[in-house]
Fold:
Amino acid sequence: MTRRLHMILTVLALLAGTAAFAQKNTRKNLESERAKLQKDIELINRKLAENSRSSEKVLSNLTLVRSKIAKREQLIDECDRTLKVLGDSISICSGEIAALQDRYDTLSAYYAKLVRGAYKNRDSRTWYMYVLSSQSVGQAFRRLGYFRSLSSQMNSQAAKIQEASAALEARKARLESLKEESDQVRGQIVKERSRLKDEESESANMQDRLQKDRKQYEKQLREKNRQIESLNRKIADLIRQQSQKKPSGSGKSKGKTVSTEIDVKLSNEFASNKGRLPWPVEGVVTDRFGKHQHPVYKNVELPQNNGVTLTVRRGAKAMAVFNGKVTQVFVLPGYNQCVLVNHGAYYTLYTKLKSVSVKVGDKVSTGQEIGVVDTIGGEDLFHFELWNGNEPQNPENWLRK
Structure:
C-alpha cells in the first residue's frame, strides 16, 4: 500500500511539475506583455502632457487618446488572461496540497502505530526477558533485531513526517502568494476599467470639439493629405528610377552578373526575416498602414498610408531594420529629412528625421543608426515604410510582434 501511494505521489509530482513549468512560462510572457503595454501608455500620457491644449493639437491628442484606449483595452485583456493562469496555478497548487496532506496523514498514522508498539514494550526489562526467553541463539538475535528495527523505523518515519510537513507548509505558502497576486491583478483590472471609462469620455469631448470647429480642422487635414500624397509620389518615383538602374541579369558583363546575384541573395535574406525584423525605433504606433476613414468626419477618406507612424520619445534614434545600402537622402515638407535604404528587391524608408547619420552609397547593417527623429510642430512622430519593388507592404507584418 505504501509503495503504491509513493508511486501515485511521484506521478502527481511529475505532472504538477510539468504543468507548473508551463504556467510559469505563460505567466512570464503575460507579465512581459503587460509591462510593455503599461510602458506604451506611459509614453502616450507623457506626450499628451507635452502637447498644449491649443486647437491645433486637438486632433493629435484625439489620436493619442484613442491609441491609449486601445492599449488600455489590451492591458485589461492581458490582466484577464493573467487572472485565468493564476486561477489554474491555484488549482494545481491546491491539488498538490491535497496530495501532500494525504501523504502526511498516512505517515503520521504509521508513526502512531510504531509509537504504540514501542509504548507497549517501553520497559527495558520486558525486552531483555523477551530476548532471553528465546529457545535458540538465532531466535534471540531475530528478537533483538526486531527491537532495533522498531527504533530505526521510528526515527526514519519521524524524518519523513518532518519532510512532508515542510513540503506541505511550502505549498500552502505558495498558494497564499498566488491568491495575493490574483487579488492584486483583480484590483488592477478595476482601476484600468475606471481609467478606460475616463479616457472614453475624454475622447468623446475631443470629437465634439472637432465637430464644432470642422472648417478649421478640415483646412489642416487638406494640408496633411497633400504632404502624404507628395511622399507617396516621391517614393514611387525613386523606387521606379532605382529599379531602372539595376542590371537585368541578362547581359554578359561580369560586373552585372555579380550585382544581380548580390541583389537576389540580399532579397532572399530580407524576405526570410519577415516577422522578425527589429523595429526601427521604440514607440507607439498611432497611424497604421492602409486606407482609413477620418476618426471624426466619417464621410472623409484619408489618403493611402503606405507605412506606419509611431509616437516616440523626444530625440529618439532611428535604426536600420536590416543590412542594405543607402540609395537616397532627401527633404520633404512635413517629413523633414528622409532616408531610403535598398535591400535587394526591398526598400525601407525612414522619415521625419532631424539629423541623418548616413549618406548615399553607405552600406548599413541591422541596428545601425540612421538618424535622430525630429520634433515637428511640437510632435515627436516617426514615419516608416517598407516596399517590395513598387508595392508598399504593411510594416507590422514584417516587424517583430
About this structure: The domain at 214-398 is CATH 2.70.70.10 (Glucose Permease (Domain IIA)).
